[in-house]
Specification:
Blueprint lengths: L2 H8 L3 E6 L5 E4 L1 H10 L6 H4 L4 H4 L7 H11 L7 E9 L2 E13 L5 E10 L1 H47 L7 H33 L7 E4 H18 L3 E6 L5 E4 L1 H17 L6 E8 L3 E8 L6 H4 L23 H11 L3 E7 L3 E9 L16 H10 L8
Parallel strand pairs: 7-9
Antiparallel strand pairs: 1-2, 1-5, 3-4, 4-5, 6-8, 9-10, 10-12, 11-12
Length: 399
């Protein structure tokens, strides 16, 4: 066997020689036989295949990519054109993609001597194309949903602006003072909604690009969660709900980004409020599990359909068949929550029963960083109250 024959025989690409015009198999290398055997286990050994018509070997499966390539080249034999096609093969219990190229080989006098078929494994290229298409689809959905979410509060603000213009033109501002105050609150709430959407979108983009960094400090997570619950209790009570915090430890120091943890808990409480009925309760529970701390946010509201549980942390996914449309947010919040939890090397999960409520559980690892311990985070300032207003902006309806 000469050098070229050895290269072809053991090459990582498939190689097949076929006689012309009777399409008998003259030779094939190990890779081509392996692929043929994977797709058609009933074919015999190489010696059984050699000398036989390729269409007979494949039981006249003219729709087979190999036969189709040969047929197309035979149709264009006089032009000397090659033909290529792609086929998916279950190769070693894995779906792989192969590109087949069929090409005529000419005699010195110009007539066709035989046909050659070469096939390459292009699985990675196909997978990259699929991933690119999926990313493009996500970006399109992102653009459409973001545009819609921005348009809704802007329409409200613009409508009130037109009303105020009318009051000004009629010189009736004082007469409609209470109405103007109410509309001003509506404008503020919708501005908060825009800020929330923009903040979430920017932070998700930063996380995906690796530009969002955590500012970890050693913090008493018990006091932090308790402080959040106390700060939102007035909001919760005002809309006819109750909120309670329960912990099995008085203090637990963890390395966390305080701002990001506040945002996570506020988002989960916001979700719990949105899907709870008046008179219901929201439980925030913290448990010290040694290697990690477990924080759960439980509501007793409408619950989530089982089919939606796996997708609920995906961007713009919402359980629309369960949740009323006027309570739906942008579908970005839970995706951001999951990303921030994972940046803390933590985990988040959800359990739910339709009609009985949902429980979101966060697990944060018990670790500290080489920084001064802050056993008690500072109390909520006006800026932190603003955070609550932003996170709860898609809950309230202004009367």
């Amino acid at each position: 066997m000469d050098t070229l024959s050895r290269i072809i025989k053991y090459a990582a690409m498939g190689f097949l020689r076929i006689s012309y015009p009777d399409c008998r198999v003259l030779d094939m290398n190990d890779m081509f036989y392996l692929m043929l055997k994977q797709k058609y286990p009933e074919v015999g050994s190489v010696s059984d295949i050699l000398g036989r018509n390729i269409y007979v070997i494949l039981n006249m499966k003219t729709d087979d990519v190999c036969c189709r390539s040969i047929s197309e080249v035979i149709k264009c034999a006089d032009t000397g054109k090659s033909y290529s096609d792609v086929d998916k093969i279950l190769f070693n219990e894995e779906e792989r993609y192969f590109k087949f190229i069929c090409q005529p080989v000419y005699k010195p006098n110009g007539g066709i001597q035989e046909l050659t078929v070469i096939c390459f494994d292009i699985t990675e290229e196909v997978k990259e194309k699929i991933r690119a298409e999926e990313l493009l689809k996500i970006e399109e959905e992102f653009f459409i949903n973001t545009t819609h979410e921005i348009k809704t509060p802007l329409n409200v603000i613009f409508g009130i602006n037109q009303l105020l213009d009318m009051y000004i033109s009629k010189d009736s501002l004082n007469k409609n003072k209470e109405h103007i105050k109410r509309n001003n609150n509506i404008i503020k709430q919708n501005c908060y909604r825009l800020i929330k959407l923009i903040n979430n979108t920017i932070d998700l983009s930063k996380i995906e690009s690796g530009h969002l960094k955590l500012n970890l400090t050693n913090t008493d997570i018990v006091h932090l969660i308790c402080d959040i619950v106390q700060s939102v209790s007035e909001y919760v009570n005002d809309i006819g709900l109750k909120i309670a915090f329960d912990t099995d430890v008085k203090e637990k120091i963890l390395a966390v980004d305080v701002d990001k943890i506040e945002r996570i808990i506020l988002n989960l409480i916001s979700n719990a409020i949105k899907f709870s009925e008046k008179g219901s309760k929201i439980d925030i529970v913290l448990r010290d599990k040694g290697d990690f701390t477990e924080i759960s946010v439980r509501d007793y509201g409408v619950g989530i359909e089982p089919d939606y549980l796996e997708a609920i942390f995906k961007r713009f996914e919402q359980a629309e068949n369960t949740y009323s449309s006027n309570k739906l947010g942008s579908g970005v919040g839970l995706s951001l929550v999951k990303s921030i939890v994972e940046m803390h090397n933590g985990e988040i999960s959800v359990e739910s029963q339709v009609g009985k409520g949902s429980t979101f559980t966060i697990k944060l690892p018990s670790m500290i960083v080489d920084k001064p311990v802050t056993s008690k985070p500072v109390n909520y300032s006006d800026s932190k109250i603003e955070k609550i207003n932003i996170e709860f902006s898609d809950i309230y309806s202004i009367n």
